[in-house]
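Customer escalation, tier 2.

The customer says the design service returned an amino acid string that "doesn't look like it belongs to this structure." They asked us to rerun it and document both sides in this ticket. The original structure tokens are below, unchanged.
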């Protein structure tokens, strides 16, 4: 839900090679159900979206401690090829 400039700085800091969505108006976050009128801070969920734009899986129990390894495992389960 951060603005473009904040996301740009983050992407540069972590050397991201993927796009990061800026959503300061929380429209996309609301559409995905990670914010509600009662909860304005985004829930930490991971959405796995296929090349066709369809959601393949949603992880609603993200652990910051194991997120990286969990993502690798789920991508393998989904048959996503390594680069």
């Amino acid at each position: 839900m951060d603005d473009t400039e904040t996301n740009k700085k983050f992407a540069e800091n972590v050397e991201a090679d993927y796009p990061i969505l800026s959503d300061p108006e929380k429209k996309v976050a609301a559409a995905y159900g990670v914010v509600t009128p009662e909860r304005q801070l985004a829930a930490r969920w991971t959405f796995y979206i296929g090349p066709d734009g369809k959601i393949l899986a949603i992880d609603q129990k993200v652990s910051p401690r194991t997120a990286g390894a969990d993502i690798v495992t789920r991508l393998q389960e989904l048959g996503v090829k390594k680069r």
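Tier 2 assessment: The sequence is consistent with the input. The helical segments are 4-14, 27-31, 67-77. The chain has two domains: 1-40, 44-83. Sent an explanation to the customer and offered a walkthrough call.
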